[in-house]
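Dear colleagues,

For the upcoming journal club I promised to circulate an example of a predicted protein-ligand complex. I picked one with glutamic acid because it came up in last month's discussion. The inputs are reproduced below in full, followed by the predicted structure.
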Amino acid sequence: MLRFAPSPTGDMHIGNLRVAIFNYLVARQKGEKLLIRIEDTDKERNIEGKDREILDILNLFGIKYDKVVYQSSNFHIHQQMAKQLLEKEKSFVCFCDEEELNFQREKAKKEKRPYRYSGKCENITKEEAQKLIKEKKPFVVRIKKPSENIKFNDEIKGEFEFSPFEVDSFVILRADYTPTYNFACAIDDMIYDISLVIRGEDHLSNTPKQIHIRNSLGYDKEIKYAHLPIILNEEGKKLSKRENHASVRWLLEEGFLPQAIANYLILLGNSFEKEVFTLEEAVKFFDLKKISKAPAKFDMEKLKFLNKEHMKKIENISEYLGYHPRYEELLKIFRDESSTLKEIKEKFDKVFEKSDDKEYEQEREILKKEILEHPLEEEYDDFKKRLMKNTSLKGKKLFMSLRELLINQKHGAEIKDLYKAMKPYLKEIITKR
Ligand code: GLU
């Protein structure tokens, strides 16, 4: 089984979505199930409703999953496992308070070395510990650091090795008996029989800790790892969650299609023979092992290009956007010159607004009168000839004002195409211009 493990603590970021997509693709390729695990262990940071929002986004993108679990519903298992580790003496209760820990942290800082747990409580006897617990002294549970280096082979980044010092004797159960992130994650990956963890490289330093937890529990089935390189913004810096285009919701609101965003995220840091494809098509040729080790740079122009390509595939654009079918041809014209759905809508809605442009106002009035006075039967060439003859307008004055009369914009599509598409309702439009 594969898993996507979002935290319900904020808006879904394109980095998270990329992880979800890759997990989906690999699950499909391996014929394994996909679990969605909502990592809600950090109560303070959870935001009400974000879990639903994440699932809605997955559905919108066509990412099908088999099961949804909330990490908090497994707390009792995490506690049981912590107890098991205590019994096996693989972990210990630690009574060091904040003051003590801060003192150690400051000391490490002064000595210019990384802070690690001092080991102070590791050798407290059982009797002593029980006495302190009876006295209601708060405690946490720490796992004992490993005795050997922890090694693993990342499917994308290659070999890694972490020393016991780097892993450290870290907290697995907090004073309120809730599990820490690494503990809950390591246990859940074990109990759901996860075969491969695909996640962002910001989690790389958690991996040896999670492997160490399972080793200590005696779980000997190997879980493979693939850590995805980060996404950089267009300036080459880490794409921050606060940047607009990092938010999936923002991209959707801007009129990017889910299929184009998915296509873009699959292409990011990859190269295939084909550039434009659907999620389902990617199942056939996606190769996790071929992803570039280097960070991928976000490229808005590329996303726009892909969006345009996917917009072309929409069969019924008026229906898709919720407009009357009689506007299909006009919407197609706008689609061909737009990069997003929002752009199409803006161009289309503008057609129905009154013009507030003073330039060519007079010319527009002359043309309006001419068009409204005669039946609109002729083809464009004859229509154009008639306008030229009866209004004496020509060149820019004629064409810019005519385009503006039709669509309320000076620049844009060929007037010939607009005329053809708008002929059945052209008079209605210009009457209100
Ligand atoms: N909840 C973590 C996140 O949203 C993912 C943890 C994991 O995949 O192991 O970054």
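Two points we might discuss: The pocket of glutamic acid is lined by residues 5-7, 39, 185, 199, 203 (CB under 6 Å). The two ends are 60 Å apart (CA to CA).

See you all on Thursday,
B. R.
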